[in-house]
Design a protein that fits this description.
By secondary structure, this protein is an alpha/beta fold. It has 20 helices and 6 strands. The structure holds fe (ii) ion (FE2) (2 copies).
Length: 390
């Protein structure tokens, strides 16, 4: 059998790799091409890369689509730096009498003489070099003759290279640019689902905005965006996690327009017992159900974000910095126009606790004027955060 081995970091595997793999299979009439993701790519200790398992999985997704392609985890299992000689020995132990072709990009090819046990490598396989750029071909042919003179068997393949690099793919993903020409759809889907390459933030926010736009009318949606923007502003000002603030601000009113009945079903489902005051004041429901929605339906596993939504209407005695930010941002977002909004905006520029106290007092006065009950959390927040300034 003719076996090709194609190593690399595949971080991620992209259309350039796939095109090359298919061309090599075709030109060398390979029976099998084994893709071997490296365990830890030498000289590439950069953060923001995918784990070896994810790289392996992405290669498997591709290999499953083509006859004669398979993926080996031998280098990943071996761990540490991947040396070609060790991989060749392992391959040879399985394919004792077969022809082995080692596929190399031009950069690897030019340094092959410096590889560990290079003369042994030359005896064990045929080097199969694929130019990365068209203008490299002459140099490659020259170096191939040199290697042949020292005992290597070399094939130079004339494949029109697709000039894609994994770095380029990662950058496009990160900046949310179209990637369809660079990656197969199923690999892109895997990357998005697993939030690889720093995709997390922006992609999630985009997704949540789309969910929110379906649950809220135009005004309420626009209010959520404005609270989110204010929350980002305050988070930067007071040194709080900006991404959490953005997300909590965006989602704080997520169940605001859910029918009463659905709120009650939700409370029952998640075993939430409302106090008498909460039962009588429906305006408090969306904060409680919003937190449940975020945790159980959106699966956001972050207690601080959840509590920021849970207490954005009432406040409470001991609030985290993020809770305070969402509570205050909901008061002073750019769409708010009530009497006194400018005062609390000014206070928020200066002191977050004081802004919480002011917010709680505005809520209490408003409820008193309307002859409504005051939730004990609002009173606790008022007392706790006002006492600092008396
Ligand atoms: Fe709200
Ligand atoms: Fe709100």
């Amino acid at each position: 059998m003719k076996i090709g081995i194609f190593g690399g970091s595949f971080d991620p595997i992209h259309n350039g790799h796939i095109n090359l793999a298919l061309s090599v299979i075709d030109m060398l009439t390979l029976n099998k091409l084994i893709i071997i993701p490296a365990s830890s790519p030498p000289h590439k200790e950069i953060s923001g890369l995918a784990s070896k398992n994810d790289r392996f999985n992405m290669c498997s997704i591709v290999a499953n689509c083509y006859d004669g392609m398979e993926v080996s985890c031998m280098e990943i299992k071996r761990g540490g730096k991947s040396y070609t000689i060790d991989t060749l020995k392992e391959i040879r132990s399985v394919y004792k009498d077969d022809e082995i072709y080692l596929i190399l990009g031009s950069d690897m090819f030019f340094s092959i003489k410096d590889f560990k046990c290079s003369s042994e490598i030359f005896k064990m396989c045929t080097l199969c070099v694929v130019p990365r750029r068209a203008q490299e071909t002459d140099c490659i042919r020259e170096y191939a003759s040199f290697l042949r003179n020292i005992g290597a068997s070399v094939v130079v393949l004339d494949i029109a290279p697709i000039e894609i690099s994994s770095t380029q793919v990662r950058e496009r993903l990160k900046s949310n640019r179209d990637i369809s020409k660079f990656l197969p759809g199923n690999v892109e889907q895997y990357i998005r689902e697993k939030r690889l390459y720093g995709l997390g933030g922006e992609y999630l926010i985009k997704e949540y905005k789309s969910i929110l736009s379906k649950l809220l009318d135009k005004n309420r949606y626009s209010h959520s965006i404005k609270v989110s923007e204010k929350a980002i502003y305050l988070a930067k000002k007071y040194g709080v996690d900006v991404r959490k603030a953005e997300l909590a601000g965006l989602l704080h009113d997520i169940t605001k327009q859910m029918p009463d009945k659905e709120h009650l079903i939700m409370f029952e489902k998640y075993n939430i017992k409302l106090s008498d005051i909460e039962l009588k004041n429906k305006k408090l429901w969306h904060a409680i159900s919003g937190a449940l929605y975020i945790k159980n339906i959106l699966k956001i596993d972050d207690e601080d974000i959840m509590n920021s939504v849970r207490y954005h209407t009432t406040g409470r005695e001991n609030m985290s910095e993020l809770e305070k930010i969402i509570f205050v941002a909901d008061f002073i977002s750019d769409d708010r126009v009530f009497n006194g909004v400018e005062t609390i905006r000014e206070i928020a520029e200066d002191n977050l606790d004081k802004a919480v106290a002011k917010g709680a007092s505005i809520t209490i006065v408003h409820l008193l004027e309307k002859n409504k009950l005051i939730d004990h959390n609002t009173l606790s927040a008022y007392n706790r955060y006002t006492s600092n300034f008396i």
